Every structure is written in C-alpha cells, then in structure tokens.
Amino acid sequence: MAQAPLWPGKFPDPKVRELAAQGQLRRYPKGGLVIREGDTGDAVYLILSGKVKVYVSDAEGKEMILAAYAAGDYVGEMALDGQARSASVAALEPTACAVIERETLRAAIHSDPDIAMRIIATLIGRQRATTVSLKTLALMDVYGRVARLLLGLETVREADGLHWSRERLTQQDIANRVGASRDMISRILKELRVGGYIAMRDKRFAILRRPPARW
Description:
With 215 residues, this protein is an alpha+beta fold. The protein has two domains: 14-138, Jelly Rolls (Sandwich), CATH 2.60.120.10; 140-207, Winged helix-like DNA-binding domain superfamily/Winged helix DNA-binding domain (Arc Repressor Mutant, subunit A, Orthogonal Bundle), CATH 1.10.10.10. Helices cover 35% and strands 27% of the residues. The protein has six helices and twelve strands. The strands form four sheets. It has a four-stranded antiparallel β-sheet. Helix 5 (171-178) packs across helix 6 (182-194). The chain starts with 13 loop residues before the first helix and ends in an 8-residue tail after the last strand.
C-alpha cells in the first residue's frame, strides 16, 4: 500500500505528522467497516480525511453509538495492549486513514516519549467524556437526551438565516446515539417540530427556540 501523505492542516503537531507518514494509507467507502468489535488489533488509525463512528452492537444488530471522530483524530488505541477490540468503527463518509502498527508506534514513543503523553492525555479526555455521557444516559429521560443531542450539533448559518446542522442524521441514527427506539424518536421529533422548537430538512436540523428542559 502507498505511504500516507503529510496533511499539515489536519495534524498541526509535527510529531503526529511524522507518525502519520510512517503508516499505511487505507481508504474506506461510506459505511465501510474500519474496525470490528471482538477482533484482535495491533494498530492505531489516524484519520486523514472523512468521519467515523465508534459503536457497539448486540446479537440482533442493534447499535449504540459511543462517539464520532473526524480528520485529525485517531481511533483504535485501546487495542495496543493486544486485547480484543472493545467497539467497532465504521466510516460515516468516504474516509482515509494512516494505519500505524504497534511496533511502529512503539519505536516512535521510544524516540519521543512525549508521544505517549499525548496519547494518555487523549485517553483521559475521552474517558471523561464517556463518564459524562453515561451519567447523562442514566439521569436523563429519552426526550432530554434527544434535546441535548440536537443542541450539541455543529451548525452553519445558511441563506434562510437559520443555523442548520452540518451532520445529516436519520431517526435511526438518533435512536442509536441516545439508546432509544426509532418510534420513540419519531414521536419526540414530531412534537418538537409541531411545538415550533425545531425545523427539519434533508435529515438536518435547526433549533428555532430552545427546547424545554422537560417535556
């Protein structure tokens, strides 16, 4: 496979750029599986372009999305201990990754121990975010989780004056993220739309006025 190119705009840290240059370039189509839960892994994936979701699923195929990452992030670091992958990763859009094998990463850390500290800092940040998410799931009802998700979407102002979400989400996508059924999400979105709190267009959302804390 071809060597991954340097993408300074995505990796401002020169050490990370150097590391990416040592990886193997892999491309994934939208929906392509990057990492499979349960597989044994020995590589980290630096995302050069595109976007991925990290998720777990049960025997019936029901998913729970844990996080989404874009260019400049990395995934798969949890498997560097040689254990089975704890979650799956799939491309949300065409995605390119620089795949760094464990031995390559180990050599890089030996050369520059600060790389290990950067990885540790990222792991700490993700663990804190996971703790907040789990707390939210435990303490908020489904409506609250949906409202929190919609309010947290990255938006862009368009010609109609509204701030529309950059990301397109189906009702099933939202259900996967908040741990609820698609039917429940459909009812909540309908009530929010009828109540004048949100607008929906082409799987994108705009907040017209802040949804109430409780429904």
